[in-house]
Amino acid sequence: MNLKSEQLSELTDAALLREAGKGDRDAFRVLYRRLSKALYSAAFKFTGNAADADELMQETFLELWKQAPQYDASVSQPLTYASRIIRNRAIDRIRKKSRRGRIVDDSREDIVESTQSKPFAGAFESLRSSEAAQAVRQAFGVLTEDQRQVLQLAYFGGLSQSEIAAQESQALGTVKSRIRRGLERLRVELEGKL
Length: 194
Prior knowledge:
mainly alpha
């Protein structure tokens, strides 16, 4: 049973989250309006930019919606509960970026080495490198145009998922799923070839 908006405005945050757990979208909207300023401020502090903060907010509220049926008011208040979600998501993002940076740093020497000409580079290495490039090109050819486009923008253009969504006028969720499906398809296509 969905409550009327005047009834919803009188409920506590905990009661709104319980109602959202029962599937009441209006209760969740009221809760969103109450919590979003404080959570956006926290998201911005963690990320340092508006686009990443928006992405973090979307992920947090989606998680809050999914977890609403299991919410226990005796454990924490909704703002505390949501703050914990946003903090954990932000830490995950920081770790992920740190991992990417380490991978780039670790492979920088290999990249520099492979781009410099070696007068006596072995024919076998050249052939292997050429075969790998060919395998990647073929695997990319199997992707849909949409998957190929977002992967090129993400990995060759260096754009974040939210920047791709803005540039391509697509929903962020659409961009994320195209990247995920494209990477899964590439993994399957390249398995055993590299």
